Records
---
Amino acid sequence: MALTPEQVAHVASLAKLQLAPGEAELYGAQLSAILDAAALLDEVDVSGVEPARESAHLPPLRPDVERPSLSPGQALGNAPAKVGTAFSVPKILE
């Protein structure tokens, strides 16, 4: 599946990337190769395969038991800035 330069530019804008003039062709070819490889999975016959219910059969790392949590004062004790009983973080989007 060959991507058009417009599609590559659209994907780059979604990822908040600015591409140099030569990068659009390079990344377009790489993305097309990835999509072609993923398209091969459509050709696999999975008609007799049971759906997976769990991806991993691992035991839990620790027992899931209720225990007391930190008080707001303890949780915010080392916070550089706070507002009431919450952390204050700098604004990153305009």
---
Amino acid sequence: MRPPSLSLPQPPDELARLSTELGNRMVAEIQRGGPMPFDQYMRMALYEPGLGYYVNGLHKFGAEGDFVTAPGQGALFAAAVARQCDEVARAIGPGWTLMELGPGAGTLARDVLERLEVPPARYLILEPSAALRQVQRETLDTLPAALRAKVHWLDAPPEESFEGVILANEVIDALPVARFLVDKGRFFEQFVAVGDQRLQWHVAEPRPRVMSALKALAEALPAPLPGGYASEICVDLPGWLDTVTRPLARGLALFIDYGYPRAEYYHADRSDGTLVCHYRHRAHFDPFVWPGLTDISAFVDFTAAAEAGHDAGMEVAGFSSQAGFLLSLGVHEMIEQAASERERMSLAGEIKRLTLPGEMGERFKVLGLARGKVPERLAGFELMSQLHRL
């Protein structure tokens, strides 16, 4: 399978062979079962054992990878998250647990643990990828032994319940999504088929589960979607959120990701959805380029996430932009604590990248879901609550 002619750097031969092997596996699956639902394609592209983007052991993060996350900008993001966790920890008391989902390189885990004033009894990391676990271990090995001993890796959410905080930074956007389009008032689903030397889109009737979700979406929107409109829907979100939050007997789950409330997500002007791919710090919109070497994600429908939380027995404790969340927790005040003018300038640049609307400040949102008694007014949602937008 040849990639399309995009202006992207050619991978080394060994990585190109890995991508070709994954592409051939996809083609064989399509030839065996017919056009593949896009969520199945996305799942294989990201998680196929040994070959998928998040499990093949290739470096993903930072300047040498494909993208930089908020924790990779510096320690201010983690300092703010730690302050929010401390507030919940003080309400719960000793013995609280912090569980992080999909922590990437482990940077946030390391920096949060170093800054918590009320350290948790355990820091659980939910990470099924052996390759990423190794990266995380290397990152966390710089911690003092007493903090490092609190860290435990899990393949799945724990069966026993706990009180504390669940943290998920840029996790929901990597959940596989179904693609759909609207034609003459009808919904159709976009599948993946084998075309002329490469994979291509194929349109067919939606699968029953997807059709049910699309009908519910249509009823929730203020107006019908126009003809030619295409977008995504994450039918796995409710089940996934219920699974990962079920062990939380009392506490707060924080979901930080790029996304929109539903009315903005499915705005008529956003007529080709939110699917985005990242390859070597280049964003593009063709998910069939170099599978296994390219990150594929979709923005988060935060209204759907809030509804999924409600269905899982949780209450929406707050919703804000990342800028509002971080500024509410005093990141701007941390500049005053800088030891030198050089450090002060560095922190100022970091705050700009994290909070300005043209950077990460407005595109990223923070959703807080609570179960049981936690502080009624959480500090991170005090300044710029956007609950009314959900």
